[in-house]
């Protein structure tokens, strides 16, 4: 990842004076383009009264007239929602508002497992048969061509309210109220479903209805739409309303989340409230969450909130369980060197597939699809990716040949398919892997002024919030810090805490999932990138940094060292001029997984520069290759030896060879790829099985008959050591292990004797 600093002209001094801005808040406003009197006044003072006239949104007048007609005539109205936090809050907003207006209103939330996402023809049939005369969709509907047509044919009008991207054809609905409808006059185009529902209710009730803003805000944060423009009003005022809420359901949810009214911020909503609502739809029917939000009884609300808390805890357990099993599949199938992952287990819980895929992408930096089988035998899954690999573009061409359902965007997707196509998907997904645009770039705001840091500093920063999409939480750099008080924290010691010191101040910093850091690496840290938060310990409140990233550079040593041993470090630091590789097969790994710039990677044999700082990232095959590399002209060399292309990490024990051979003779109908499934039963990973098979082929113990593995009827008797492949691999493993485990001083002495002076 590359870090890039935002730039902007300073705010005019008269604006700084007028709005009483501190230097840090003035700079942050400038960096976000909030740099005029009009923009600053809107930011500080706009309320729901300043929202645009809702009638400007496409088909608004038509929709409102039809809703009022249904209310006047006592027609049954059904709100057709969605099972995520946005759909849940949108359903609640519309149901509550129509109830206040005296409508005969009901709601329906699709079941993730039975109905799938969005319009479902069978459910529309049920709703029509149940006497509904007007269907209002919230947070869905733009794909419901067939469903809307069915309703229309049976005398039922449909009003679609949505914010998702239109496809080629639009439904023939009575009205389509959409914040991004082509050519409409409404100026804000990034409402979530709850935001669109709230806008309709403003027009219906001819009032800003601030009592609905808490729900619209939760949907906005939960769906990660813009918190700038009108989104800023929704979130800022919605937080005000939430912190004073009298809704029994929200109060019970807040209590169970361990939050305190009057102190809840956008982070609390994003990490504590919205996930609890989402958990209901992931594991059960999201109607329960709507019941919670509509409840006006404290006891009933607490009972429902407790059920939701249990579901949220179960969601966490299932996510961990499925994630752990996915990592086992990677090991068992020797997919560590794959660029992509397609992970399938019929026992995975469908509700957590997207969460697990996202977690794997964060851990392994590989585009990942996680699949399971539902009760009808259909294979369903979710995929996640990262900047540089467009998941939608990779999978969209496979719709006709491999997928029965598919939808998504650049970095996330959902899909369905048949079980016998999973291996084909795995192969085509891997074959299409490529990364566009080089390394991911992340922006930071400014160097953190270290003097006089206090909780008040955060209050100044928060003037530029609430933060979210379009207004990212500020990230600060701390350059060339002196690091003290470094130690590991957490039950598994996978987090770190340290103090960054500069001559004008210091800051305590927590780094989550930064267990690769240790005392040996601290001198190499040139910049720490942090967000700021408050830490309360024993009733003492202090400012702390949350580590977002690190930049490394060669340490400024009193006595320069030409050879540095970093073999024990698993993390690749971006501190070399050039990263050298012995094996070209490792280039994609270094580019894509280790995130090294393409122009900094060279093969040892092609390297012809001089006077650079280099890192040897992979292992040579033998001493001749190592010696040749060390004779080149470097200013400084970092020894990593991190990667290899060994077929196995160690030669399997002789007993496993016998076990595999016996299995082949007993099961002559299996293809080599079938042993991917057999390997765990044999107590091996797939790479080890493939290695054993290759040895057997060389020695004539087995053969392929119609692409199936069979044992030779009269093989020549010879020891395993007769295999040249086995002996060569064994010799290479021995050399590499020696290279990786040699005492530091001995290795450095050896390298110093060879490097060119």
UniProtKB/TrEMBL annotation:
NCBIfam families: recJ. Residues 339-431 form the DHHA1 domain. GO terms for biological process: DNA recombination; DNA repair. It comes from the Bacteria. GO terms for molecular function: 5'-3' exonuclease activity; nucleic acid binding. Residues 76-220 form the DDH domain. Gene3D superfamilies: 3.10.310.30, 3.90.1640.30. Signal peptide: none annotated. Residues 294-321 form a coiled coil. SUPFAM superfamilies: DHH phosphoesterases. This is Single-stranded-DNA-specific exonuclease RecJ.
